[in-house]
């Protein structure tokens, strides 16, 4: 349940508040460290877990592009449900929010109308057709503040795991997340949500 020590406690609607236009970053925790370090890859589907502790209606989903992609560069953003309480992996598609133009810099967002349920794990997903664009990230190192839901020893060194990836031809997000591998790039794409209602 939400409490005054959880990052989710501070979720609020984008409008009608004392301090408007505040977004919430998926997969981050209090005091997260932003960095501009993730160059997107062509046909690579990324997913970052986030724990939704309050009932909300998400009205926007977006990313910050810090290095513009090639002409025609685009990405799809969306949300997947979690496979299960004992199987942390993205599974069924909740929403494909649509396509963003990432051929220029700045904060890019899509309008959505999606209810998210309290006490539920979801995955924010990003799929790009470009390998030049760089997006703002949440660093995944141990001193940063992204969710670490596991650790792996793929190269003889144990490393925190905070995202997954899969090869996927660019287009609409698949209805079921493909078999996922561990994403050990050291940073997670900073996918931000805006809310029209928070309960």
Protein architecture, described:
By secondary structure, the protein is mainly beta. It has one domain (7-198): Jelly Rolls (Sandwich). Helices cover 0% and strands 52% of the residues. It is built from no helices and 15 strands. The chain has strands spanning 24-25, 34-39, 44-52, 56-67, 74-84, 87-101, 106-116, 120-128, 134-139, 150-152, 159-161, 164-167, 181-182, 187-189, 192-198. The strands form 3 sheets. Strands 1, 2, 4, 7, 9, 14 and 15 form a 7-stranded antiparallel beta sheet that branches. The protein has a 6-stranded antiparallel beta sheet with strand order 6-5-8-3-12-13, with no helix packed on it. It is globular. 37% of the residues are buried.
Question: What distinguishing features does this structure have?
Answer:
mainly beta; six-stranded antiparallel sheet; globular; 199 residues; 52% strand; Jelly Rolls; seven-stranded antiparallel sheet
């Amino acid at each position: 349940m939400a409490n005054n020590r959880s990052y989710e406690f501070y979720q609020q609607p984008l409008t009608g508040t004392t301090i408007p236009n505040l977004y919430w970053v998926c997969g981050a925790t209090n005091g997260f460290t932003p960095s501009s370090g993730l160059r997107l890859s062509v046909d690579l589907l990324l997913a970052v877990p986030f724990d939704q502790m309050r009932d909300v209606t998400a009205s926007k989903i977006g990313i910050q592009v810090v290095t513009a992609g090639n002409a025609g560069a685009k990405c799809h953003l969306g949300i997947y449900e979690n496979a299960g309480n004992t199987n942390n992996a993205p599974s069924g598609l909740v929403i494909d929010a649509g396509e963003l133009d990432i051929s220029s810099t700045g904060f890019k967002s899509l309008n959505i109308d999606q209810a998210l349920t309290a006490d539920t794990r979801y995955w924010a997903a990003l799929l790009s057709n470009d390998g030049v664009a760089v997006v703002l990230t949440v660093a995944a190192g141990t001193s940063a503040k992204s969710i670490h839901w596991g650790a792996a020893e793929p190269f003889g060194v144990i490393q925190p795991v905070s995202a997954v990836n899969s090869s996927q031809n660019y287009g609409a997000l698949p209805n079921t997340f493909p078999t996922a591998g561990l994403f050990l790039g050291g940073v997670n794409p900073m996918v931000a949500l805006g809310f029209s209602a928070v309960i």
